[in-house]
Design brief:
Largest sheet: 4 strands, antiparallel
Structural class: alpha+beta
Shape: flat
Number of strands: 11
Radius of gyration: 61 Å
């Protein structure tokens, strides 16, 4: 019994030791350590109500079933940003190629942002996301600074970039490590002009310094010459010492003043020309930039407006089309339902009538109805065919008339063309020939108009005095006016815009002035009754 009890306790102890060892092995396998170049992200059921627990350095026990883990790499990423045509504060577009070095941040709050937004994402997608953010913020930074601030004070420019870019990168869990601006250029050569201006200023200052030194040398030389002259004059003649000295002083003073005046004038002219050229260049560049920006802005706004209008019109047209379709569909359904209801009512009435009538009346009426329908259909078919035959005949008639009229017009056109061609291209001469052909018809129409007049006699009361004695008697005047009441051939031709040939005669002077020119032989037989004076 004692041996049995000892074996039982040994078994229990061994089992307990095995259980402890297995528990330790299991816990060791679930304990994950975080390398220094990574971030351990524990997600699932974590403390504090957070979506994930980020650990940098150290380790954590990952509970099975309710937790899992992953790593985020802290290796920095180098992103090239070839920013082109960024608009500065002076409305000058510049190119700012740069290189940004970013990485996942190890700050607690920023690490959680990275765990929520970047976990298990490929590095290329993370770089593209950061690149878009950097592009936008870099353009914003350039737009808030002048070219002088960007080009000359690089430290302030980098500070502004960090201030704008870093908070936006922190929102997705990234940290801005370094910014490197390679070179800044612009399409309008403004930066190059600034460098040329600085070089010109340095060259001008050097020339001024050289001129100053030459001036000092000339003054020293003049002083030495003066001293020599004074010494020689003192040795030659003490009597004229004062005179020579005064003359030498005057000459030196005049020379100095002339030298200083010449240098000052040259400096002033040079400064004036430089300033004028700079101002003119700046004004021209500003005007060109303003015009270019204005045209670009106007075109962009017009393009946006036209695009918006077209989109709105398309949406309105689509909405109206859909509404019309729905209305038509609803109307169609209503009409179908109405017709179906009428059909059902008529069917019910018909069935009621059939039930009321006896079988013989129904058969007879059905036969009569069929006969009427057949006769009506036959009559309708007859009328329809007759109408179709009449319409076809009318159509053929009109087509034949149209073809005949077209052939007549084409023949006339060809004849007129040949007539004009035979007249050497003179359309007026051709029109005269056509008019001459119609003169016979016009004269015939005039004769017919007078021939059918039934005049038994014409009575003219004439005193025989002849009026004033110059224009003939009253009878002669009456006959002349009666004959002239008919349109003369020359007048008809003149109204048509034509000149008749000379062999057809001309209007006489008496005819043009309205005087009597009618021959006695051409006067009609008229009974004249003269009153006695």
């Amino acid at each position: 019994m004692q041996a049995l009890g000892l074996g039982y306790w040994v078994f229990v102890i061994i089992a307990f030791v095995i259980l402890i060892v297995m528990t330790l092995v299991f816990l060791a396998s679930r304990y994950k350590r975080c390398p220094s170049d990574k971030i351990l992200v524990v997600y699932g059921k974590v403390s504090g109500g957070q979506s994930a627990n980020c650990i940098h350095g150290g380790g954590a026990l990952i509970w099975p079933l309710i937790q899992d883990y992953s790593y985020m790499d802290l290796t920095p990423m180098t992103i090239s940003i070839p920013l082109q045509n960024a608009l500065s504060q002076q409305n000058i577009r510049i190119n700012v190629p740069s290189t940004f070095t970013v990485g996942i941040s190890t700050e607690p709050g920023v690490m959680n942002n990275a765990a929520e937004r970047l976990l298990n994402l490929p590095q290329q997608e993370i770089e593209e996301m950061a690149k878009e953010i950097i592009f936008g913020q870099l353009r914003l930074t350039v737009a808030s600074l002048t070219i002088e601030q960007i080009n000359q004070d690089r430290e302030s420019f980098l500070v502004e970039i960090r201030k704008n870019v870093a908070p936006e990168l922190n929102k997705i869990g990234l940290y801005l490590i370094n910014v490197n601006i390679t070179d800044i250029t612009d399409s309008s050569d403004y930066i190059e002009s600034i460098g040329k201006k600085a070089a010109a200023e340095a060259i001008n200052q050097a020339k001024i310094d050289v001129a100053e030194q030459e001036k000092h040398g000339a003054i020293g030389q003049a002083q030495a010459t003066k001293e020599k002259d004074v010494r020689v004059a003192e040795n030659v003649a003490e009597a004229e010492k004062g005179k020579k000295k005064a003359e030498a002083d005057r000459r030196v003073f005049v020379q100095q003043q002339e030298t200083m005046a010449t240098i000052g004038e040259a400096d002033a002219d040079k400064e004036k020309e430089i300033k004028v050229a700079e101002k003119l260049a700046e004004a021209e560049k500003g005007r060109k930039r303003a015009e270019a920006d204005k045209r670009i802005y106007v075109q962009q706004q017009e393009a946006q407006a036209i695009s918006g209008e077209n989109t709105a019109k398309a949406d309105i047209a689509n909405s109206e089309a859909e509404l019309d379709i729905k209305k038509a569909d609803a109307k169609r359904r209503g009409e179908v339902a109405k017709r179906d209801a009428m059909v059902e009512i008529q069917k019910a009435q018909y069935r009621s009538e059939l039930e009321r009538l006896n079988a013989e009346d129904i058969v007879r009426k059905e036969i009569q109805k069929k006969e009427i329908e057949i006769a009506a259909e036959a009559e309708a078919e007859k009328i329809r065919r007759e109408a179709k035959g009449t319409a076809d005949a009318t159509l053929l008639k009109y087509e034949a008339e149209a073809r005949g009229l077209r052939q007549v017009l084409e023949s006339k056109a060809a004849g007129y063309a040949e007539l004009v061609k035979s007249c050497a291209g003179d359309a007026k001469a051709a029109a005269t020939l056509l008019m001459i052909e119609k003169i016979e018809q016009l004269v015939t129409m005039q004769v017919e108009a007078v021939k059918n007049l039934k005049i038994d006699k014409i009575t003219v009361w004439d005193s025989g005095s002849g009026g004033d004695g110059k224009n003939g008697t009253t009878t002669a005047n009456f006959l002349s006016g009666f004959v002239k009441s008919l349109p003369p051939l020359h007048d008809i031709a003149e109204m048509a815009g034509l000149d008749l040939p000379k062999y057809l005669g001309r209007m006489g002077a008496a005819e043009s002035t309205g005087g009597p020119a009618t021959d006695e032989k051409q006067k009609p037989s008229v009974e004249v009754k003269k009153s006695q004076a």
